[in-house]
């Protein structure tokens, strides 16, 4: 949370919000909404995913609640874009978390990431022995 405050927030007032007090995101509202308008990112990621997963160990961490995308959409992505969960280095669902898992369940997400990193470090050590 401290890093999020340091790196992601700035104090008000700003040039964009000269009459406000408190804090706001470092990016402007216009910058943030632009990230949702880029219609090409999804299809590009989808088309490149299978080859990326085959070339690089890919760990998929997702929330167990399907609040942003229906489960059928996620299942289709895993089956067709990824080529199946078996092609992933790991697959984890964070219990009781949805699309905003970073904000709503940071500790559970950190534990999932720690698990991935621990396994990867163990593999590296085993390869060196």
Give an account of the 3D structure.
The structure is a single chain. The chain has 129 residues and is of the alpha+beta class. It has two domains: 1-37, no CATH class; 41-128. Helix content is 53%, strand content 14%. It contains six helices and four strands, in the order H-E-E-H-H-E-H-E-H-H. It has helices at 2-8, 29-37, 41-55, 71-81, 101-104, 106-128; strands at 9-12, 22-25, 59-63, 90-94. The strands form two sheets. Strands 1-2 form a two-stranded antiparallel ribbon. It is globular and about 60 Å long. The mean pLDDT is 89.
Main traits of this protein?
129 residues, 2 domains, 4 strands, 53% helix, globular
How big is the Rg?
Answer: 19 Å
Quaternary organisation: single chain
Mean pLDDT over all positions = 89
Largest sheet: 2 strands, antiparallel
Overall body shape: globular
What share of residues are in beta strands?
5-15%
Helix/strand order, N-terminal first: HEEHHEHEHH
List segments where confidence is low: pLDDT < 50 over at least 5 consecutive residues: none
Protein name: AB hydrolase-1 domain-containing protein
InterPro entries: AB_hydrolase_fold (IPR029058)
GO molecular function: hydrolase activity
Keywords: Hydrolase
């Amino acid at each position: 949370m401290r890093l999020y405050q340091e790196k992601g927030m700035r104090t008000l007032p700003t040039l964009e919000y000269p009459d406000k007090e408190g804090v706001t995101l470092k990016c402007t509202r216009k910058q943030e909404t632009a990230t949702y308008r880029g219609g090409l990112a999804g299809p590009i990621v989808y088309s490149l995913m299978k080859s990326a997963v085959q070339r690089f160990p890919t760990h998929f961490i997702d929330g167990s609640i399907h609040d942003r995308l229906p489960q059928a959409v996620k299942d289709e992505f895993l089956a067709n874009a990824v080529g199946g969960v078996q092609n992933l280095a790991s697959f984890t669902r964070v219990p009781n978390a949805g699309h905003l898992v970073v904000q709503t369940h940071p500790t559970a997400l950190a534990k999932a990431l720690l698990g991935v990193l621990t396994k990867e470090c163990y593999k590296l050590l085993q390869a060196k022995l």
